[in-house]
Structures are given as structure tokens and as C-alpha cells.
Amino acid sequence: MGSNDRKAKLSVVDYIKTDRELLIATVDLLLYILKKQREMEIDRPVIIERLSTTFSAFETNFSESIETDKKLSEELRIWTYKIYEYEKEKNFSVLRQLINEGYLTFTEIERYVVCPVCGSPSIRALFICPFCGSFKVNTTEIVQHTVCGYTDAKVKFWSKDELVCPSCGLRVKEEDLKILGKIFICENCNRTFRNPLIRFECLNYNTTLHSPKYKFDPLESKVRKIYGYNITKKGEGLIFSDTILIDALSLLLSSYPDVIIFRGGDTKNFMEETFKIKELEFSAIIIKGTKAVALDVVGEEAIPFLVKAGVVSKTSMIYLLIVHPDSLRTLADLEKMYSNVRLVNALDLSLDKLKDLVVSILSN
Which entry of 28, 69, 136, 202 is 20 to 30 Å from 172 by CA? Predict the structure, then answer.
């Protein structure tokens, strides 16, 4: 069995742990969807609207291999993600695995047109006259002169700065015209029509795959789907199980010299050896020099952490709690009671923010 086959058999959690960028990107993505879903306070699917640099392992589903799509700016609206295929053997979608394993649900919201050559969604529609091929096409009202009954495009009633009936020659007031509908008119050949030809123009001028202002007709275009995502209870449980969150944080802190991280049972040993406190375990203890941060990820069960905060208050450590939004009220008074306790609402969290907070505490 090849390496691809072996990886394909892994659960999504085990798979993302095999790669630094996938792990960090997936954790940030889950946090972002949770934040947006809770902000809306409903179960509508979240349409992902930005591509943060922290999502560098994701690209939009505009194309399979367009380099420029991998570096899209934050200003461009992003709806659909797939895993960035930055190495050829990693060519299946982590999003799809998250959905298949019940961490996310998704639904199709709508569809949009992209350039068939470069895959960019930055396009504009052009109306073309079916008679002369000019792009000087506009809309106008079809009106009827109530005095003589003449019917034509309103634009043809204008003579200099006033309305004049082309048939009877009378000056016309707006109230003398009965609006019957709208129609297209070509400013080049002056002909009217109901159905213009439609052409699209690609606005991606940075690509080398086609010339600037590349145009194509609707039948040549490609259509992409817009998806919205919901995080499930299982997905929330994945975030607040602390495992992947601390794994990702550990990776970000690995570039900082002299930072030591204890996990699981090692935190229990540290507490006993350093503070003579037995049987007290944390998600992580992060140390730099004489400074230490005890970190816990708090899910919907918050009561045990009230007791732990009281014990930690007797030490020199800062106790940092990443808290599920439903547990904030239960723990809200801890910061008032103990000067060394810090609460962080998970909805305000990104991995970079968490990393910066930990580094700041260890540096002060």
C-alpha cells in the first residue's frame, strides 16, 4: 500500500496532524465558521467571505492549478474552499472529510460564472447588438404618445433637450407618454431588440493564460458552486477537545526559542515537581525562563475549572482559559477573584491571536 493509500485511510483528525499547514489552516477555519455561526445566532450555513493569511493551506475552488488563485487578497470574496494542493500527493479535500465524518454540514447556496481559461470569478457582462455587433447597448422604455398613438423607444422622442413625437411632430410632456415596458437599443445602429447577445470579459489582467480583456460567450463559461457551512456539535467538540487546538498552537510556538511546552500527563508531573501540587492536569503548560502559562480549553462543562482556578491562584503561573461561549457566564467572575486568571472567548480567537497572547504573557 502506497503512502497516499495509507493517508486516505486516516481519519481527518489524524490526517491533518501529518502536516503543519493543514492542521493550522483547519483549526482556524473551524474557529472562523463557529464564530460566524454564533454571530448570526441561527443554523443558517456560514458563507465564508474572506481568505485570511492564516488559511494559507486553502484556495478557492475557482480552478485546479492556477497559481494566482492561491494568493488571492483578503478583499476578494471567498465562498468555497478546498485544500491547497501544495504537494501533489495531498490532493483530496479536507473539507470533504470534515463533512463526511460529521464535523461540518454544507449546502449549496447559489452558482457563479468564472473564466473558462484562468478560472477567475472577476468578470463583467457585456451586452452586444445582435444586428451590428456594437457594445454600445443600453436599455430604454417603450412609450406610446397618447395623442396620436405612436409607439417607440422613449430615447427616439428626445430632440435636443425636449420631447418631440417622431410621428406627429408635437412637443410632448412626460404625462403624454404611456410607458408600455422596456427594451434594449443600440446607440450605434439605432435598432431596438429584446434579447442582446451576451459576452463576458475576464478582469484578471495578471494571468499569462490569456490576453488582457479576454472575452467569451456564455456557452464557453464555467460555473462554480457557492457553498455555505455549518459546524455541528461534533465539530464544536473537536475544537474544544483541546487536542488539535493545542497541537496547532504548539506548532506556532515552535519557532520561538527557549519555549517549552508540556502536555497531558507531563503537566501533572510539572505541577507536582514545581509546586508540590498533585493530580492537577492541564491542556498545556507553556514555559519560558521563569514565566509559565497554564492553559485549558473549556467546553460546555465549566464547573471543574472553577476549582482549578482557585488552586492555580496560589502559584506564580498565569492561568489562561479558552472558553466555549456557553461557559463564559459560569466563569465570568474568575478574573475578578484571581489576578492571574485570563479568559478568552473562543469566538474572538484565531491561532495567531492565541499565539501572540501567550508570547506576550511569557515576555512580560
Answer: 136
